[in-house]
Design goal:
alpha+beta, 2 domains, two-stranded antiparallel sheet, two-stranded antiparallel ribbon, 5 helices
Length: about 140
Amino acid sequence: MPTKICACCGQSFPPDPRVKNQAYCSSPACQAERRKRWRQSRSRTDEVYLDNKSRAQRAWLDRNPDYWRTYRANGAGTPNKQIIDSKPALAPLSGLYRIQFIPNIDPAKSDEWIAEISPVCADCPCKENECKDITRSTN
């Protein structure tokens, strides 16, 4: 039987003969990615799907009016709280900063962006922080 290459992980897999045009292997991570891409595609192209999704969310929220208040009160929804709390809070300073996006591994928040903001050396042509470390070590 011929094999196919998974569109998510890139590994070869034997396709299920019952599934026409199968593009993903049976790994749970790849199946989650397949479902995520399907939902994103459907949200971009199908107004009825979006309307149904919106109505279902509204109906759920009407049945659970205190959900978000309780969720925030319990400290839930902050998987990166340790990272945020471990650094001292500084007032924002003017200057040049680098924003690095970090992959989001929480499937419940697939539309959330996580970013790390760090200052960049503005006194040298390379605009990198590494040059400060190099000049210190060579002096």
